[in-house]
Amino acid sequence: MFSNGRLAVRSTLAAGLAGMAMLAAAPALAATGSADAAAVAPAGNTTPAGAGSFKTWAAAQKAAGFTLFVPKKTDGLKRTHNILVSRCTATTKVRFDVYAQWGTKTFMALDQNNSGAACSNFGAATFIKNYKISGVTYRLMGFCGRAHQPSCSSKAASLALSWKAGSHFNVAFSKGVLRGTLVTFATSIKKV
User: Fold this and answer.
1) Can you give the residue ranges of every domain in the chain?
2) What pLDDT is recorded for position 93?
3) pLDDT at 18 > cutoff 70
4) Long-range contact pairs involving 38-41 (C-beta distance under 8 Å, separation at least 24)
């Protein structure tokens, strides 16, 4: 039942990210990490509680069993759903993936896990640009620039920005915002 709820929440993404399951199967990103990003470690010595839907970051962090990060700059968008924690299917080890979204038609979302790589593949996207900020490489992809798709510099473009810091792998998604806004959202993350 949880997975159906998760798919319902993600249907908002599907409008702009046709065929998206969740994360980019992007090539490994060489990143040394900033002070905050390098500090990613398990959240205490607790065993993960497991998958579920959580109202608070603290509860989601306990369920996931690793330190979570939350964006401080959301361009005025409010978090629209509970924080979703699910099993990362890209590894045989017990790892969890955490998803939160701000906004609905215009939105930004953050997906994070501690497996060191993407948990799934969101489909074919156009490479737009790499950003290197505070020692971390961010890879920007978009559903744009091809036949029947908006320009990659348009607010209508659906974007995905992925980066790795230590064993922490993140993807920020957007629809209805410019790429600079998505980069600001992603680089504003701080520990819960």
Assistant:
1) 2-191
2) 79
3) no
4) 38/165, 38/166, 39/67, 39/191, 40/66, 40/67, 40/114, 40/165, 40/166, 40/167, 40/168, 41/66, 41/67
Q: 115, 167 in Cβ contact below 8 A?
A: yes
Residues with Cβ within 8 Å of 128's Cβ and at least 6 positions away in sequence, in order, are 140, 141, 142, 144, 145, 152, 159, 179
Residue 152 pLDDT:
93
